[in-house]
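Many introductory courses stop at the sequence. We go one step further.
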Amino acid sequence: MKPILALNAYDPRASGAFDASLTERLRRREKLFGAASVLFYDRPLEFLRAEGCWLFDAAGAAYLDAYNNVPSVGHCHPRVVAAAARQLGTLNIHNRYLHETVLQLAERLLATLPTSLSNVTFACTGSESNDLALRLAREFTGGHGVIVTTAAYHGNTALVTDVSPSSYKRGGPPAHVRAIAPPDGTGLAAGELAVRFAARVTDAILDLERSGVRFSALLIDSIFSSDGIYADPPGFLRAAVDAVHRAGGVVIADEVQPGFGRTGTSLWGFERHGIEPDIVTMGKPMGNGYPIAALVTRPEILSAYCENVGYFNTFAGSPVAAAVASAVLDVIEEEDLMGNARRVGAHLQAKLSTLAARHAALGAVRGAGLYVGVDLRAGSVAAAAALTSAVINGMRERRVLIGAAGLHGTVLKLRPPLSFSIAHADQLLATLDEVLTAIEAAGDGPLPAPSPV
């Protein structure tokens, strides 16, 4: 498996010759950040400003952003910026004081979720939300066994790294974690995927119990983003959720990636599957990049934890954070960004499928709304991973930014801001066509199809 930080990462050992200015910046960063320094692309980028779906470098060149989901309603959205500035100029304090904006955000957020999920706790990041979710699950169930998918990523605290297999460069998750294959429905009849995925969950529960580990939670991102993006068919998760509840566990829906309208048909990714999680977690897209996140759950789950351990987070749910998150919800609603995600996402998937008919390297197209994955194919897994890197860097050189996903880094990942338009999608498609054509020409013909399994 390829670690998530290695996907599309700059490797100084394999870098080419750069101009003196870039070389010096890279030297300073590597010296200051050490082994933790991670940059994108074979030739790293430096940006000075952003607007909507565009990032601008020091020379003023514009790059189309089809990668960054954190600025969910678009970079530097004026309404969000104004809300932050206005509240920051008035009051910013922790939430142990009453503040109407914070209360209104909580009420507004809860109104979008199942009525049983009636308590919200604010945090600053998705990592913090998922960390707290795991602690709540442990206290409520009395167990600590967790099931995730093979290439899942859920954050970077100690608890959450344990359940993020894609974070590991060596080894893997600890003994209380079971990683199961993601729900790839390719070639399966209707309903078969639900049965298979539920069976994997059940087998993992039994394996935990045989090892003396009591089961606690199934933690899933319903778009399975790091695994390679598996969204369909809607509803296939219901059988797995039933299996978890029969075993006395809880379901944690990680909505950092699929939440806030990204899938195009509902505000929350889990809604596409008609399920009701026990805990829902959110991350920085709820603040368009401002550090606000949240956990929503049933009162009895939160109470079971708070009876034994207190929870307080200084900056979580501050008046500024609440004002920003409220502005994001306003923009999603008033600019119909969920509808835009549905329309532009459908256009993008349809045109990608058409493009695949001209380029043998393009395989299955998957996704929902403005979260789309495209398999890249070559003669081997290693060749497909190398091809993915070549495509991503070729797009970068033509000023379109995309990413990678999947167990081996062989899936193109497209997750732009929700304001991404048809025109933006067409520019991405034309650039991808150009890059693939150039790669094929450099290889003296179409890229080879994958070897038969």
